[in-house]
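Technical annex B. To support the medicinal chemistry partners, we prepared a structural model of the target in complex with magnesium ion, based solely on the information shown next.
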Amino acid sequence: MGPLVNAATIAEPKLVVDGLVKEYTSRRAPAVRALDGIDLSVGDGEIVSIVGASGCGKSTLLRIVAGLDHATTGRVEIEGCPIAGPGPDRGMVSQGYSLFPWRTVRANVAFGLECAKVPSRARAERVDELLGIVGLGGFADRLPGELSGGMRQRVAIARALAPEPDILLLDEPFGALDAQTRRAMQDFLLQVWARTRATILLVTHDIDEAIYLGRRVYVLSSRPGRVAARIDVPFGSNRSWQVTRDPRFLDLRDEIRDLLLANG
Amino acid sequence: MTPEATAVEPHVREPSVAPGPAPVPAARGRREHPLARLRGELPMAARVALAAVGVVSLLACWLLASTLWSSGAFRVPTPLSTLRAGVELWTDGDLGHDLLASSRRVAVGYAISLAIGVVAGIGIGSFASLEAYGEAPIGLVRYVPATALTPLFLLWLGIDEAPKVALVVAGTVFYNVLMIADVARAVPRDMVTSAYTLGAGRWTVLRRVVFPHSWPGIVDVARVNLAGAWLMLVVAELLAANEGLAFQLTRAYRFRRVDTMFAILVVFAVIGVASDLFLRWLRNRTAPWARS
Ligand SMILES: Nc1ncnc2c1ncn2[C@@H]1O[C@H](COP(=O)(O)OP(=O)(O)OP(=O)(O)O)[C@@H](O)[C@H]1O
Ligand SMILES: [Mg+2]
């Protein structure tokens, strides 16, 4: 198991973040160093989790990778290329609900394909395929306002997957959901991943979620945000809720909790 | 256990000691009448009934005023004589013609004003640079009362259609721009960033995200400021016109026809209500997702 993980991270990482520093300057307050020397990498087809306390800079990190914000210093590269701005190669599902409420589920998922000028036939096929993957085939013509929170997040994930991004950035995608729905959505994400082998960088503040979904977990400390630990998760890619009772899972959870307490 | 508690005990064990109806427990909280509930829901029937009562009370006030002041200089015509004057105006005069003339001026002027409002408003609401550039001059010019421009426009543009249309534009365009800018600013950040990460460019985001999200708000702004357009039209027509509703108003004044004047006022009110209902319908029809 160990060598395999290393092979995946050393060979061809999709995303490399190296010495990333982000400072917010404002006239009223002294500069805030939100991120202070973050190093991380995500290999092709991996799910990597980031956990950290609220305000430690998780969203900032994701926004910088997405190209929505710029690093103060440091290197961020996707497949060896630096990032100038947002693009369809880096799909993002943000913390809040960001679906277009005037578009049907189908049209929401199709948005990225329209931007890429995919012909309508191919577009419809791809949208149907994705709606099948996220289990919303029967809701294609509904408006987001008619869906539950969990369904909306599934649409958002399908929409982000549509342009076949190199990496999917998920910012607490299930944060607003209740515990049961959240569990279902985590299994759902694993299923989607099993079918698409998408590369995923997942931000969460839920330790169980980070371990359950991630092949690797980065634990961030707060103010300034630093990588406090990088932990490999010793479970294969076929996971079920059985692993949450595995003693190694429980040990990992305790270890991460202690790290967060020490660095919160 | 305290002696008191022991003394109470038999009552608790044997309620049959006190026969008769069981005591009704006092209700918790204050019941409010449905008509006086703060921000409460109202059943449709009550809503319609109250609206009808409102209209009837307006008519009643009018009727009362017309009986109190039925003659002399300060004279209020009865609803019936107003109706008769309106019919007369329609059959012998050219109410239809004047209505058309006035509506056309408002329609053209307001369409120009809205077009400017949508383009400039979305620009100002979406780009901080345009906001910084545009807000100060608009803020300055906005405080010039548009009605004060009337003589200037008459001087510059003659007495035909142009100054009237220009006044309608001048009187509404700044409100439209600033209010539509607010509407565009309300587009959630997450929605815009999602569009960017899905591969949309600036123009696509404006066209496919900012505009559709703002659309119901734009219709609402149009609804609110339409009254201002009619206000400007009346000012323009009062000063220089030979057709139009306000022109008929000045004519009625010359002949001391208070009933005709009232009939024209009613026409204004009806146009206003009709256009309001139409815009409301349009909003719900074109943006069902934003229906409140
Ligand atoms: N635009 C900004 N200007 C100034 N400071 C900012 C800005 N955005 C974020 N920050 C600061 O950067 C820090 C990290 O914010 P960020 O949103 O990345 O946290 P987070 O880890 O995502 O928190 P949460 O779990 O609550 O979402 C915070 O201390 C915040 O105050
Ligand atoms: Mg966040």
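Notes passed to the chemistry partners:
The radius of gyration of chain B is 30 Å.
The mean pLDDT of chain B is 88.
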